[in-house]
Amino acid sequence: MKILIADDSRVMRQIVIRTLRQAGFDDHDIVEAEDGADAYAKVGSEKPDLVLSDWNMPNMTGIECLQALRSAGSTVPFGFVTSEGSPEMREKAANAGALFLIAKPFNEDTFQEALSGVIA
Amino acid sequence: MRALVIDDSRAMRRIVSGILEGLGYETQQAGHGREGLDALEGLAADQLPDLVCVDWNMPVMDGLQFVSAVRSNPGWRSMTIMMVTSESEHTQIVRALAAGAHEYVIKPFTADAIRDKLALLGLLPQEAVL
Amino acid sequence: MTLTDSGERRRGSDARPVISDLIDEATVESIAQEAWISLVGEEEILVPLPGGPVTDPVSSWVDVVGPWTGSVVLTTGRRTAEELTRALLREHSPEVLEDEDVVDAFGEIANVVGGNVKAALPGSSGLSLPDVGEAPALRNPADLCRIELQWRGEPLSISVQGALPALPAVP
User: Fold this and answer.
1) Mutate to test the interface with C, among A5, A7, A8, A15 (most CBs of C within 10 A)
2) Predicted structure pTM score
3) ipTM
């Protein structure tokens, strides 16, 4: 399985990768994207099985990326990993077609809970 | 009371000026920050506007540069600066506030929103207080 | 006509809250503690005691724009910011840290702390991308919630500070 991780912070991408590993999801291919536009392009070129995306990013935000993907017909499973987990953001994410929203700070349990139904 | 309205959109300048005139302000308009500074240059202290409403995103000189320029002139400290910003760039507004602006409004706004902000700032002309 | 105050105006002035009306030091501290455990490491404790003056300070912050508008600012010494960066990067920590790494890691901590402060505030607000450098100036000393902490014995402060100057006194 291939997982695309989109975050403008390289440190945060590494922390997400580390937490995936700690949560037991360690034998997957990881692709990184540094903003929403990069993620959008890489969904096309890399064909990931899952996208884990930050919300607030330059160029294209995570929600804009998801909306662009859905309007282009992509059904790639998409979840947010973001520092803002307010009820209205969760609602916005769900309405746009996101499977889950993991709020930072998170730990391996949060990841397990959100991803166990998504990652085989 | 006097206000200077700086926006590159003529429609926006008219809307803001119309609201302020409705509250009893005399208004003057400028199309970007540089024009705004030109309008202020050479004014005696008692001729300066009480309020400057300035857009964020403009050609030639944007709102942030305008605020910094105004704050660097000690003779212009008496003016209150209100930033006008759009929803898409509103999270950048703190940079303009940190540079010395006093208040902000997010487009689209109502006349009441402007009135409430001016009331807070003590900048409602007397006829509009009631 | 005489000037009368309908009371509406007075309620209007309540529409600009200061931060102490909205969040307290204990909440900011618990947000920071959680961020530290998650980002910096399980055993990383922030000690809630002032650590004295900061040498060669560097700040990271995010701006919150909404019913309350201001910045969530973390300030510590440059050396401590570098150590934090190494703690976040763990095995990916390079031999020589570049400025870019510190901007990224220290900014990301501000993003997580600021995002959670934002979530604790009433109403809906926007959050800026993080910035790293010299802290934004304090506009209104009455609109400030500040905690002083120590991490690995070094001072670190978190200021939740308003971006608007104090309102003029009512005549």
Assistant:
1) A15
2) 0.83
3) 0.80
